[in-house]
Amino acid sequence: MKILLVEDDKSTAEYIVKGLTEVGFNVDHFDIGSEGLFASAINKYDAIILDRMLPEVDGLKIAKTLRSTNNQTPIIFLTAMSDVDERVKGLTAGADDYLTKPFAFSELLARLQNIIKRNNGVQANIESVLTLGDLTVNLIDRSVVRSGKGITLQIKEFNILVYLLKNKGRVVTRTMLLEQIWNYNFSPQTNVVDVHIFNLRKQVDEGFDKQLIKTVRGVGYRIDDE
After folding, report:
1. Exposure winner among 4, 23, 29, 148, fewest CB in 10 A?
2. CB 129 within 8 A of CB 138
3. Cα 68 off chain centre by
4. What CA–CA distance (Å, rounded) separates 59 from 49?
5. DSSP class of 214
6. Where are the beta strands (DSSP E) in 80-142?
7. Which tens digits make up the pLDDT trace of 11-36?
8. Helix or strand or coil: residue 96?
């Protein structure tokens, strides 16, 4: 599913994009109102997350413009304006929901699922739990459980595990992990991947009969339950 995010606060935008991407959404982000409005006109989105105060064109104008052209894409306003009058303005402009900052990502996700469901008449197909054999990873609360035992992982270890699970049965190279987890587009000549994989294995595989994380010599790693 594809989401349009129009938000000019960098940290808020990064937080939302990261969270939505982790649960399976594709996200287009713009920090200028006019660019977001243009994107909404030429692309089809399953929902729009819209800040109220934006450069060039504000959120109210974007919502009103979309509705005036019969664009019924569900809209959530995300803003620090919490007064009742401001919420009414947002809903009157055509928003389907209104969430005030600060907010919990879990609430944003629940509201997003709800408006997509209402619009489509079906449950949004969002992958929030990954499983492999007796291993379960919850992407919402970031919990990891194997054979009923809770496992505590560092952020990078958790992200590596999620990436491996999303590619289960396939070889994931060190370069792929450096690009996806560390955002490197070059080889930093470091063993950081191997160190984190070693620590991840200690948490996920140590003490269990079946080892899930395998080394593909000279290439990278693979996770499976064979």
Report:
1. 148
2. yes
3. 30
4. 10
5. E
6. 97-100, 129-132, 135-138
7. 999 999 988 887 778 899 999 999 99
8. coil
| C-beta of residue 221 within 8 angstroms of C-beta of residue 197 | yes
Give tens-digit pLDDT for 137-170: 998 788 999 999 999 999 899 999 999 998 899 9
The amino acid at residue 36 is G
- Two structure tokens written together for 158: 């958790």
Peptide bond just before 74 cis, omega within 30 deg = no
130: which 2 tokens?
């990954």
Q: What are the structural domains, with CATH classification, of the chain?
A: 2-120 (3.40.50.2300), 129-223 (1.10.10.10)
**In Å, what is the CA distance from 210 to each residue of 108, 172, 225?**
37, 20, 7
What is the CB neighbour count within 10 angstroms for residue 38? 13
